[in-house]
Amino acid sequence: MTIRFSDFVVDVVIGFHRNGGGYIIANSVNNFWLETDPKKHVEIFSEANKAHSGNLVPLIKMIKSWNKAHGSFFRSFHLEVLALEALKGVIITDFPSGLRFFFQKAATLVRGKNPDLAGYGDDIGRYITQATLGEASQKFQGAFNMAAAAEQYANRGQVRQAIEIWRHLLPNHFPAYG
Description:
- The chain is mostly helical.
- It has two domains: 1-36, no CATH class; 38-169, Orthogonal Bundle (Poly(a)-polymerase, middle domain), CATH 1.10.1410.
- Helix content is 51%, strand content 11%.
- Strand 1 (2-4) and strand 2 form a beta hairpin.
- The longest helix has 26 residues, at 130-155.
- 24% of the residues are buried.
- The mean pLDDT is 90.
């Protein structure tokens, strides 16, 4: 059940404690039971955000903003899982390179299984079918191409061109330049 307020939305789901920890929750959209542990997810993201000096959460918000601005193809939690997978073993040094790196890695990662971070083995990306897999990868590849071009313009001091590309990629984060 979804409850909509003027400034936020709350999803209420049926859930039961799972033997061994976590929960079993109903997925009414796809008509199955999902084993997960939201509390463990919070711990995992909190630790990862600390490892990235607080830059992971803002980067994920930018990724979600990109998704929303370009048709909301991906589910929010799937993007979070992809971000953790993509950024494993690296540190976010700045947001432009972080976004570029994420999009590049996600184009490949989305083609594989993206297991639940809590360790229950469910593929978070299973809503993407064989028929839409190419489109999913292509969306990330297109975003990578744009992010790489914007980064190149910025590195050459061509700020106006970089901002125009960033505006297209993340329209909710970049106002028009001069």
